[in-house]
Every structure is written in structure tokens, then in C-alpha cells.
Amino acid sequence: MAEGTGEVPVWTPYQSDDGIILISSSSSTCSDDLDDYSQKHEYQCWESDNVTSGFSDSFRVLSYNVLAQNLLECHPYLYKDCTPTNLIWEERFSKIYNQIINANPDIICLQEVEEARLTDFTSKLETIGFKTFFKKKKIKQDGCAIFFRSSKFEMIDNLTVEFHQPNLPILNRDNVACLAKLKLRDKPDSMPIVVVTTHLLYNPRRMDVRLAQIRLLLAEIDRFAYYNTGRNRGHWPIILTGDFNSQPNSQVVRLIREGYISDPIVNEDQSDWRNINVTNHCEHLPLHMNRLSENLTSDFSITLIHNSDYGESNLSEDEMYSKRVQFEEMFKGMTLRHSLKFSSVYDHVKKNGKKEGTTFQNSWVTVDYIFYSNLLKLEERLSLPSVSDARRMGPLPNDSCGSDHIPLAAMFTLRNLSMPS
After folding, report:
1. With b meaning 16 or more CB within 10 Å and e meaning fewer, what string describes 223-246?
2. Fewer CB under 10 Å: which end of the chain, C or N?
3. Cβ proximity of 71 and 373 under 8 Å
4. In sequence order, what DSSP letters do the residues of 206-273 get, joined into one string?
5. What's the rounded Cα separation, in Å, for the pair 4 and 104?
6. Cα(280)–Cα(333) distance, rounded to whole angstroms?
7. What is the distance, to the nearest Å, from the Cα of residue 63 to the centroid of all Cα atoms in its chain?
8. How far apart are CA 365 and CA 247, in angstroms?
9. Is 245 left (phi over 0), alpha (psi -120 to 50) or beta?
10. Is 262 exposed, middle or buried (0-12, 13-18, 19+ CB in 10 A)?
11. What are the φ and ψ backbone dihedral angles of 28, each rounded to 5 degrees?
12. Helix 207-225 and helix 251-258: axis angle, to 10°?
């Protein structure tokens, strides 16, 4: 969308050499088979294996770690090879904003949004019809934000998550997540869509912490997206985005995508998850018990997590202890599972066998993701550069990319618009 004019880029299908259908603007000519990055007008284009004519009721989601300026300035050695002018916030923001609107998203999920610079985003995006939902970390100055096009969506509920949980030592880091429940305005009887964005701990040595963080987040998604009409129950369509600081073969990503992992790291620190009542099924125990009893309403007040929008438990320790004794096995062992049925927008390896990259961490790696549940159909995605192409781009931020991460984007449609009866 061109700023100030309301124009929408025209995306045209064409066929690449390896048979994949690419959806691109008239200026974009990228293809997996082009090894020389200098031959590419742009490093990202829209691609799809099966383009649906018209994209009826479709919507686009973009996820982007925009690199908080205060973090850049606190760690200048990480950017010593960048052109100095590309590190100035005003220069970076202009490029970040252009990257966002060029993807023409309806939902924007951002990580590392510095609170002091949030108005830079809101002042521009609100003028073209977006509303904002932001969650700042408790101590650090940045957080996560969800923007949505208000002409297309109405936010009917929202939730924030803080991963710092005083009763569980492994959850002692200042990371957060935001969840929004959105409904299509022109389809009032359609199912709501749950959109989630997060930024997990960076420390490469602490996969155990990231796994604990995603365990808590999956439990929160489970309770926020769950419905029970009496005749039907399940989860609303879910889109989970963010910087997970975890590569595709990591325990974190495997748990999300496969719904199950068995690994000693799950219980390595011997944390007693009964202290916050989140089971190894990535569920809040009281909600699990509630669903077993076929109650149509969920009593969120009996969860035990701190810093929750729903508040803390009103039950005594003795009452809660007596309720969970029969479910003791759901807190033991080295397995984790969930029932949210996620797929990844990206394959993480291109058709020519080359790995994709989203950021540079000693080498080019993928740590940013868009996951979606099985009630959504992926129509197209904004391609990611291969690792070899990313190397040719040079250090980030650069002349074309305003952050040290690459933006991700995808178009979805709802497989079934109707609300369950």
C-alpha cells in the first residue's frame, strides 16, 4: 500500500524454473534457482504452490523483529560492519515501515518494539487504518505489538503473558507475549481468529528456558482459543508468530510443529510445574479438569500463573493440592505435548536444498516463524532468502532492510467461516 494514497500493490502470478508459482509485484523477479543474489531485483517475493482465484475472505499476516534501537546502541560491536547511517533510527524506521506496507498486511506482529518509539509506528499505521495492541516487558524497554486493519477486523478480546513466574525458578526472564482475538467485520457469524506474537529468550545456552516459556505460552493459547458450545468444542483458528530464538530442529520448534517431544531437557532443572499448575500437556490443570467435567464455561480464576490478565487463584493451597493429586502424572516425566495442531508457513529448506535464513547469529539461521493451525489454509507466503543469498546481502541493517532480521509474511483463508453450533 503506497503511503498516503491507499494504493495496493498488484501481485502477478508467474512460473519459476522449478515449477513453483510465484506471486510478485512487477518489480520482483526472485526465484530459488537464481544463485547470484546480484541478479535479483528483490530478495523476497510472494510464492504459492496452489493459488486460489480471487483469495475470497483472505487476509495477510506479517511478523517482524524490528530491532530495538536501545539494544542496537547497547551492543554496537554486533553492527561494526554495517554502514553507520543504516544504524540511525530514523533511517532504519523508514525502511522498516516501507518493508511493512509493501507486504500489504492486514495484521502486523512486531517484536522488539521499543516503548519510547512505539508512537513512530502507531502515528503512521493509524493514519492508514490500523489499531494497536502492545505489551511491554516489565524491566526492559521493548515489547511485542499486534496491529490490525480496523476496516477488516474487530478485536473482541486480548490477553498478555509474562514469562517471569516467581514460583517457578526456570521462568525468571523478562519476556512477554500478546494474544488478540479478531473477527472479520464483514463476516459477523464467522469464527474468530486468535493471533499471537512473542519473543523468547536469546541466550543460546538456555534452550531449557525457551522450552519452559513456550510451554507456558501454549497453555495460555489453549485457554484463550478454546471454545465449547455444548455440541462442539475445540480451538479457534490460531496464528502464532515471533522470534523464538530457536532453529527448526530445536526442541521448541519440534514441540510446536509436531505437538510432542520427549527429551531429558524437559525436566532437567527439576522445576515443580505444580507451582503454576501447567501440565506436561501444556494445559492449565484446572481447565483440563473443567473440560473433563463437560462444563461449558471455564473458571480462569483458578489458574496459578502470576501476572495474568485473568488474575490469580482464589483457592487455598490445600484446596488446590487436593484437586491435583489425582493428576500427579501430568507433571512428571520428560515428555511435553499439546493439541493445537500447528504447521509452519515455511519449509526452512528451499526446493533446491538450500537452507533459509531470517537473521545472523554467528551464521545465518532461521529463528523467526509464522505457525498456523489446521482451520486455516495457507494461500501464499513471502519468500525468505537462502543462506547463500543472505550472505550476499551483507550485514544487516543495510540499505534495503531496516532490521537485523528478515520480515515474514503469509496470506491465509479460513477453511470454514461458520461458527460451530
Report:
1. bbbbebeeeeeebbbbbbbbbbbb
2. C
3. no
4. -HHHHHHHHHHHHHHHHHHHEEE-SS-EEE--EEEEEE----TTSHHHHHHHHSEEE-GGGGTT---G
5. 13
6. 8
7. 7
8. 7
9. left
10. exposed
11. -100, 130
12. 20
Scanning the structure block, which residue is given the C-alpha cell 518494539?
Answer: 113
Topology of the domain comprising 56-265+340-414:
Deoxyribonuclease I; Chain A (3.60.10)
Residue at grid coordinates 490445600: 318
Stated length of the chain: 421
DSSP character string of 83-145? -GGGGSHHHHHHHHHHHHHHT--SEEEEEEEEGGGHHHHHHHHHHTTEEEEEEE-SSSSEEEE
Q: Which three cell numbers stand for residue 87?
A: 544504524
* Type of residue numbered 240: L
Query: Where in the chain are the domains?
Result: 56-265+340-414
